[in-house]
Structure formats: structure tokens, C-alpha cells
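Notes from hallway chat w/ T.B., transcribed later so I don't forget. T.B. wanted the structure written out for a chain they're using in a teaching module, and asked if we could keep both sequence and C-alpha cells in one place. Agreed to drop them here.
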Amino acid sequence: MRVLVTGATGFIGRALVPALAREGHTVVAWVRSVARARDRLGAGIETVDAASGRGGLTAGLERCDAVVNLAGEPLLGGRWTPARRASLHQSRAGVTADLVSAIATARHRPGVLVSGSAVGYYGDRADEILTEDSAPGSGFLADLCRDWEAEAGKAEALGLRVVLVRTGVVVGRDGGALAQMLPAFRLGAGGPIGSGRQYLPWIHLHDLVALVVVALDDDRWRGPVNGVSPKPVTSRDFARALGRALRRPAILPTPALALRVLFGQAAAVLLASQRVVPAALERLAFPFAFPALDAALADVLGGAERRGV
């Protein structure tokens, strides 16, 4: 299978591309910088330069059997000014709309689109148990995810099977939220965020990549899928587990007020509570390699801690 991947040079994409290759798939990366893509993914990676416009993207899609859409700027890249909100929306819903429009004009269309989304879809819901059937929440993040998914869903009318992966915090090496947490925790200055009572959905990068690979091949997969571990934890639980993995204390909380001063409304990414469970993955009998947080952190941090990095 030939798979076009957007966001291929990002944290998740860099793990997905070699996993697809190991399964015998050929990857075509739609990228803004061909040089950076080849530096991060290997000189032999096939690319479609975003600078080639709609025509180049359509031509690339016509050679592919499937699409994985991972595009999106980091949510915590700055305060959510009106310009920043517009940029975040364009990088997700806008790019997805461009992608689906290009699929519509392709003479040969891919058969499946696996498109990224996030648990931000559910908003701030305290300790309410949330499945894929739960209603969307309110606020900027929920609206963003709803628009993002709506654009991807338009591919269904073009004959594609569409899978929407609502991802939580991704635990993996060399990137993601964990990389931002580690410096403070290694100094013994880490701890829960805000009250610590808010639920923090998470998933090991290995499991996230594995579910994307399976979703491409298995026709049973369609619609929203919560890309989270079956064992949800609170922010306090997460901090304690990370402290145990690093053999450091993890008791110093980061006050909610300080986060709001630093990030403004973007602090909602860190303070919202989403007790999300992977009902679809359980129904599909997806085999989690790392369902428990302690084991996931041990896998991610073990080698790095032994190397002292």
C-alpha cells in the first residue's frame, strides 16, 4: 500500500513512517521542506513538496491507496491571540479541507483516510466518563476539534473510509509533552498541574502508531476512535508515576493561576479534565502493548536515564 502522510516530520510522524515501512508500505510525505524531511526521515523518502500547490498534492494522492493526516501546529506554541487561533485552525481544519479538496479532484482516490484529532473535542468535563459517543464540549479546543473532524468527514462522501483518532498526551522518546516535563522533574521540581485532580488521557507512542497502522488495513475501523490508554490517570497520578520513573520527588504543584498568567486561555490544554476511555479500541480488541502508565514510562525513560540524557 502507498500511504500519503501529512505531518510526517513531526513527533508522531517520525515514528509512524518507519513503522509503515516495516509493514511493507511505501510512504509519500507531503512536506513544506523536502530537505528537512529527508534529514529527519532518510534520504530515500518519497516526498510531495507543499510548494507544488493543489496540483502537486492531487498528483501525489493519485498514486496513493491511503492517507494519514497528522498536520497541526503545537497548541502551546504561544498565547491564543486572535492571530494564533486562526493559525491553529488553519494548520488543522484548513489543511484537512485542502487535503480533502485535492482528493475530490483526483482521478484515482485513496480508499481510506486516517485523520488526527484530539481529546480536546470533549472540553473540560471533570470526572465524567467519555466515550466516542459522548457529545462535544465547549470552548476553543472543542470547537477546533469539531471543525477539524468535520473537514475530514467530508471524505466519506467521496467514497473513503474515514477514521478520526482523538489523541491524548502521547508518551514517547524525543518529543511531545513528556519532553517538556522532563527538565523540571529531573531537578526534583516537578509535580501535578493545577489541582492535580483533572484527568489526563495518555497513550504510549508505540500504541498510537500501531493503531494507525491497523486502522489503514482493517475495514471495521471507521469514525471516531479515542487514541488513549484503557487506564486513565489524573494529573497527580501522572506526576507521581513520572517521579517514580525518574527516582525524583514529584510534589511541587504548578498553580493554575501561574499557568493562566503564562499561557492565557491556552492553559486550558493543561488544566482541562477529560476522563476519556477507548471504547472503540476495546470493541475492536486492539492489543495495547503499554496499557499501564508505569510500564509505559519505564519503557520510554529506561534507556535514556541509563545514558544520563
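Follow-up for T.B.: The radius of gyration is 19 Å. Might be a good example for the class.
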